[in-house]
Amino acid sequence: MNAATINPQEAAHFGALAADWWDPHGSSAMLHKLNPVRLAYIRDQIDLHWHVDARERYALAGRSAIDVGCGAGLLAEPLARMGAAVTGVDAAPENIAAAKAHAAGQGLAITYHAGELAALPAATFDLVTSMEVVEHVTDPAAFIGELAARLAPGGLMILSTPNRTMWSKLLLVEAAERVGAVPRGTHDWDQFLKPEELTEMLEGAGLEVIDRSGLSPSAAKGFKLGGSEALNYLLAARWPG
Prior knowledge:
Blueprint: H1 8-15, H2 29-50, E1 64-68, H3 76-81, E2 85-90, H4 93-106, E3 111-114, E4 125-131, H5 140-149, E5 151-162, H6 166-179, H7 195-204, E6 208-218, E7 222-225, E8 232-238
Parallel strand pairs: 1-2, 1-4, 2-3, 4-5
Antiparallel strand pairs: 5-8, 6-7, 6-8
Helix pairs in contact: 5-7
Pathway: Cofactor biosynthesis; ubiquinone biosynthesis
Family: Belongs to the methyltransferase superfamily. UbiG/COQ3 family.
Protein name: Ubiquinone biosynthesis O-methyltransferase
């Protein structure tokens, strides 16, 4: 496959947020609240998939990982700290510049690319992640196909995305953008995917969905795993067999 899935308007929108991506109180504050919960899910799936002891610090030692739609590296850096050889790719050059600068400051060796996933050198990865990205591309099915093409045999793919429900329209789009919890124009509710739709795309790419979890608001922690999928959910997939 060699699909072009970047939406230039979306890339420009997120590129404009690059300067304060790492500020937990800035325009990406919601991502900073989401990230620990997403990381917990990713770690659980890594441990289950590769039979890793939950106490192991370097759960991805000797493995490769790619984070697609990596922004300024909010997920790529923790994956590197787990021992993975990490590649990050993002549509916005501004995000990649910020990601490279931050990783250098942390002493982390992460390979970053700006542009289409399909334009990267041919390679597959043990872990493929793409968080809150599929709802921003021009052709979700083609994008999922590109992700699948990057997944190595025996590998693990993890995705997260908002659900297309009335709750997500009210809370993630209308309320969150009105009060400034997320920047205006971040979400297009019509582009959200229901779990069944995303599952069908993954299966169409030859993958098998092995787990799904809701990601819902929590008064104590901001967000929590499990429970309702009405706002957001995570999926884990692999090659069958």
